[in-house]
Model the fold of this input.
Amino acid sequence: MSSIDRSREVGVTRSYEIRTYGCQMNVHDSERLAGLLEDAGYVRAPEGSDGDADVVVFNTCAVRENADNRLYGNLGRLAPQKTKRPGMQIAVGGCLAQKDRDTIVKKAPWVDVVFGTHNIGKLPVLLERARVQEEAQVEIAESLEAFPSTLPTRRESAYAAWVSISVGCNNTCTFCIVPALRGKEKDRRPGEILAEVDALVGEGVSEITLLGQNVNAYGSDIGDREAFSKLLRACGNVEGLERVRFTSPHPRDFTDDVIAAMAETPNVMPQLHMPLQSGSDPVLKAMRRSYRQERYLGIIEKVRAAIPHAAITTDIIVGFPGETEEDFEQTLHVVREARFAQAFTFQYSKRPGTPAAEMENQVPKEVVQARYERLVALQEEISWAENKKQVGRTLELMVAEGEGRKDGATHRLSGRAPDNRLVHFTKPDQEVRPGDVVTVEITYAAPHHLLAEGTALSVRRTRAGDAWEKRTAAEAAKPAGVMLGLPKIGAPAPAPVPSGSGCGCD
Done:
């Protein structure tokens, strides 16, 4: 019996695994890819299978220098498994697929499907076509075919969700390849966005994150400069929506009306991720960033005046071509002045196809490494000092799932404060579910988390917790699918939120 016939055998259900790299846009896309596959009859492979699924999808990022090596290394490790398992398929999508196109199949001829950032909705069709025709399918669309949020979804969380409000980017930062891969900015209509938010809240979601490459540039495509602040205020009128976040804004587009909307809309959280990239005016100019140090610090000052308890985080690139010691000292100066709650720091990564890759005065790697270590040490010191200010405060936490790796051993649970700080708290006597809200007093601060070691002051059961409980019960009741090939040992949870808020390109 051929692999095609076996894949269509009565009672056989094909499993899938998705591996996600890069920014939140990719995480959101992966949820849509999962939804598309499940809509087409696939089932998610059990946790821990590590490539032992019938379909393995790589959703790639092209921003970091080692992205190519990481992908081809992972593809190489799957090649022997694919040889042993008739009918297994491998698909590569995302930014690196959009960039490399036919190169992927040439370097890894065992790949079955290559698709880009603009046509993720085609994945099930391409997999079927590759199976029928028994040859690789490479299909890269040059423009967006459908907003990710309009496609089926398999959300990783029952209580929190991404909502894409725009795709693409109109900026020309010299270090970034994203605009070439994601295209020009295209905005969704406000009514479509709010309809999706309403639908999500109806399903039990209580927290949404508005998502865009430059999220606060929203409105440029529809001709309304205040569209983003209006959208934030409109989200404030959605009954049952407890928390609204957004990422990532650009300092160029961060206007006073946005600050006012954040301060005056109760469910918009006191949190801001504002990419800095460099504190040096000459480096910012070379990066083609359309703000300077004074403008950046001015925004921070206004936000803190309007929202005193706001936690501000950032992205910083160290070692951009031509960066001098004086330039780097200016970055350290901004870090000291801004007192970020956290900074996602990146060593400059040369990417072919970007203007910065061709610039002279590339900074030696050992110099970049030394500066990077100094920056990390300074930020660790500031993060710890800022977290210590939280000790003694009473905070409402939304209970999270899977964020406390040691929770089982410590008999604690974990949750996110309104400003998105991670808090580990003593497990209450009563049942607490992800999505429920717990009020605690902070007793200890570490650089990257807080502790609430006393008894919880209150526990509030929520519709979001109900939604988590309902979904968990439904998944537990699902019959196991009949898989092809070797027995499954599980698959790592796809689409974890990246360690950094961005990928250095915001």
About this structure: The two ends are 51 Å apart (CA to CA).
